[in-house]
Amino acid sequence: MLGTSPIIRALRAAHLHDVSRQDLLRLACERIRGLGAPFTSVYAYMLHGDELVLEAFAGRLTEHTRIPVGQGVCGTAVASGEDQNVPDVTAVGNYLACNLETRSELVVLIRRGSTILGQLDIDSDVPAGFTAEHHTTVKAIADALAVLL
Ligand code: SME
Fold first, then answer.
1. Judging by beta carbons within 10 Å of its beta carbon (0-12, 13-18, 19+), is residue 40 exposed, middle or buried?
2. Residue 77 beta carbon below 6 angstroms from any ligand 1 atom
3. What is the crossing angle of helices 4-16 and 21-33, to 10°?
4. Which of 47, 51, 62 for a ligand 1 pocket mutation test, highest count of atoms within 8 Å of Cβ?
5. Mutate to test the pocket of ligand 1, among 83, 96, 107, 108 (most ligand atoms within 8 A of CB)
6. Which domains are seen in the chain, by residue range?
7. Within the chain, how many helices (H) and strands (E) appear?
8. Which ligand 1 atom is the nearest neighbour of the CA of 94?
9. Using a 6 Å cutoff on CB, does residue 106 contact ligand 1?
10. Which atom of ligand 1 is the closest one to the Cα of 43?
11. Burial 73-97 (b: 16+ CB within 10 A, else e)
């Protein structure tokens, strides 16, 4: 997996040093973005009732700081209980655009058992940017976060 282990080690070390939840999520976002293309911008949305709330990010600012479950690619992931790998965001009817550069998007749920805690949402400027290996890489990080949060 694409450099996952150093990221998970860094998250565990930060957790041992009692960093805040927001700092842990920000570290995850920054380290994933640090892998380079196709990871353009990384957002940690956490579930609060029936809304996803942006708690940390690395990369471009977004106006979508709260997303109702069921809306957009992010809300669809929670409503369906399925990660979303969207190769072409322009082909998605309910896509919530943050900017004009994003071409593809990967949403990986952060789950603890059957409970969805939130998600890592990743935008890419690369068309069809995310492979199954990218998905596996991000899922390992999401699974690590689920234990540490
Ligand atoms: N594109 C997402 C919204 C979040 S921004 O990409 C950061 C969606 O359709 O849900």
1. buried
2. no
3. 160
4. 62
5. 96
6. 4-148 (3.30.450.40)
7. 4, 6
8. 9
9. no
10. 7
11. bbbbbbeeeebbbbbebeebeebbe
Closest CA to 58 of 1, 121, 106, 105: 121
* 13-21 contacts at long range (C-beta below 8 A, 24 or more positions apart): 15/148, 21/55, 21/149
Dig out the tokens for 91 from the structure.
Answer: 């082909």
Termini Cα distance of the chain: 23
Q: What is the pLDDT of residues 54-80, one digit of tens each?
A: 999 999 999 999 999 999 999 999 999
For the segment 78-88, what is each residue's pLDDT rounded down to a tens digit? 999 999 999 99
> Span 107-126, mean pLDDT?
97
